[in-house]
Each structure stands twice: as structure tokens, then as C-alpha cells.
Design brief:
With about 190 residues, the chain is of the alpha/beta class. About 40% of the residues lie in helices and about 25% in strands. It has a single domain, classed as 3-Layer(aba) Sandwich (Pyruvate-ferredoxin Oxidoreductase, domain 3), CATH 3.40.920. It has a six-stranded mixed beta sheet with strand order 2-3-1-4-5-6, sandwiched between helices.
Length: about 190
């Protein structure tokens, strides 16, 4: 069995670490050998955060090297561009179309790049872009963007939806489960 590599990328505070725990849990429950590595960067100040999740029959390292990643799940457009070089030929980038200005843009030292997704598509990347913020708000909180994205990613996995929902029960606080179930279903397309 081939090892599959996933990168979850975003900005500190978006819930990428919870998303990686959910992915790791559902994969472990399915019997895969799973390795997860988190790189926080300046996450507490809204900086870039990346989590590597690799799974297969036997996985020896959690780190994804350039050109090796099968899926990039990006919580924000600029982060998709930042890590696009890690994608293997034939890989897919799932990206929330939300724009979150990094500190250099906020301070006026830089400008947010225009047409990021169009440029990536023109460069031949397989981009599945959609607004994950609106369904998260419809579910009850902007913080549910992470679960909307995981619901969307679940459509590309071979794991049944009910297994994802069971894994959510293990990693999500019960008082937020109803909202996150709605968010997952919206991401899944229901």
C-alpha cells in the first residue's frame, strides 16, 4: 500500500491542529499506520501553521518533502500558494477562498498578492477552491471552517462518512459536537 501524504496549512488560530487530530484519529481507527507532525511557526501571532499527516501500511516519517504531497488542505489562499511546491504531480489542493492578511500586509509593509488561485491554476495545479467560511457561519461559528474543510476532504477519502463522524466524537468537545456535525455535513455537500 502506498503511503499517502496530506498537509494541513493555515494561520494560527484557525483550528488546523484540531483538523489534523481528526484526520489522524479517523485514519488510525481505519487501521492505517499514521504519523503526524505539527510545525507551529508564529501560530500565536497569526503566523503560518503546517501539519503533516502521512498514512499507509507502514509509515516511517511524518515529514512531507517537496513534490511528495498528495493533498494540501489550505485554510487560506496565501497559505495554499506558500506550500504549493510540496504537491506531487497529480495531487490536489483543497482551499478555502478566505483571505486573512498576514502581519506584513496589516502593517502596510507588503500587499496581499492578487489572483493567487488563478495563478496556481494557470501553473497547472489541481485546485478545489470554495468558500468554507459561509457554511461555517451557517453552522454556528467562523471557528468551524476547519471542520467544513475536513468534511470537504472526506469526499476524496475512501473512508465512510459515519466513520468520520465517529472520529469527531473522540476529538471534539461534546458541547460543540452538534455545530461541528452541521459544519462537517455542509463541507461534505449535504
Amino acid at each position: 500500500m502506498k503511503t499517502t501524504s496530506v498537509m494541513i496549512v493555515g494561520v494560527g488560530g484557525q483550528g488546523s491542529l484540531l483538523a489534523s487530530r481528526l484526520l489522524g484519529t479517523v485514519l488510525t481507527d481505519e487501521g492505517y499506520d499514521v504519523k503526524v507532525s505539527e510545525v507551529h511557526g508564529m501560530s500565536q501571532r497569526g503566523g503560518s501553521v503546517v501539519t503533516y499527516v502521512r498514512f499507509g501500511e507502514k509509515v516511517y516519517s511524518p515529514i512531507v518533502t517537496e513534490g511528495e504531497c498528495d493533498y494540501i488542505i489550505s485554510f487560506e489562499k496565501l497559505e495554499a500558494a506558500r506550500y504549493a511546491g510540496c504537491l506531487r504531480k497529480g495531487g490536489k489542493i483543497i482551499v478555502n477562498t478566505q483571505q486573512i492578511d498576514p502581519m506584513p500586509v496589516i502593517t502596510g509593509a507588503a500587499e496581499y498578492p492578487e489572483n493567487i488561485l488563478e495563478t496556481l491554476k494557470a501553473d497547472g495545479f489541481d485546485i478545489d477552491d470554495f468558500d468554507a467560511l459561509t457554511p461555517a457561519l451557517e453552522a454556528g461559528s467562523a471557528k468551524a471552517v476547519n471542520i467544513v474543510l475536513m468534511g470537504h476532504f472526506a469526499k476524496f477519502s475512501s473512508i465512510a462518512k459515519d466513520k468520520w463522524l465517529a472520529a469527531m466524537q473522540k476529538v471534539i468537545n461534546p458541547k460543540f459536537m452538534e455545530m461541528n456535525t452541521i459544519a462537517f455535513n455542509k463541507g461534505f455537500g449535504e
